[in-house]
Design goal:
The chain has helices at 2-13, 17-23, 29-108, 110-141. With 149 residues, it is mainly alpha-helical. The chain has one domain (31-136).
Length: 149
């Protein structure tokens, strides 16, 4: 009987809680809070997973950066030695090209000059033809045979 009396006192001490829960249509606010807490825990797990993946990515990028720096350290010295040589070669090539251009300019006038010289030699041969005939005739008078054809 004492137990029945305690139960009735507890029900009387919270008289509106049962009615309030009944008005919510059977939805227990503790269940809603539990689902929200479960969603927050899943979200925090996904965030943790994303942060770990990001950390792994950054670690790999650091490894790649170290490798690139090591390669650059290896090739930087030879490149510093080669670049002045390449620059000097480029200057020398530019000078050589200028000289060759000058020679080519002079040589380009050569065909016209050769043609003119051949024309002059042809003209000279035509003008000397009578003298050649005279020399052959004179040579024949002295018994010299013409060298010939």
């Amino acid at each position: 009987m004492a137990d029945e009396h305690n139960e009735s006192n507890q029900t009387k001490s919270n008289p509106g809680v049962g009615d309030f829960l009944g008005m919510l249509g059977g939805a227990n606010p503790m269940m809603v809070f539990g689902r929200a807490l479960e969603g927050a825990m899943q979200l925090s797990g996904e965030i943790k997973k994303s942060v770990l993946t990001f950390n792994d990515t950054i670690t790999e990028l650091n490894k790649v950066a170290r490798r690139v720096n090591a390669i650059l350290d290896e090739i930087e010295g030879p490149i510093k030695e080669i670049v002045p040589l390449v620059q000097a070669s480029a200057k020398q090539a530019k000078s050589t090209i200028k000289k060759a251009d000058g020679v080519l300019t002079q040589v380009s006038t050569l065909p016209a000059e050769v043609t003119q010289a051949i024309g002059t030699l042809g003209d000279l041969a035509a003008r000397l033809a009578p003298l050649t005939q005279f020399a052959e005739t004179a040579g024949a008078m002295f018994g010299i045979k013409p060298s010939g054809n």
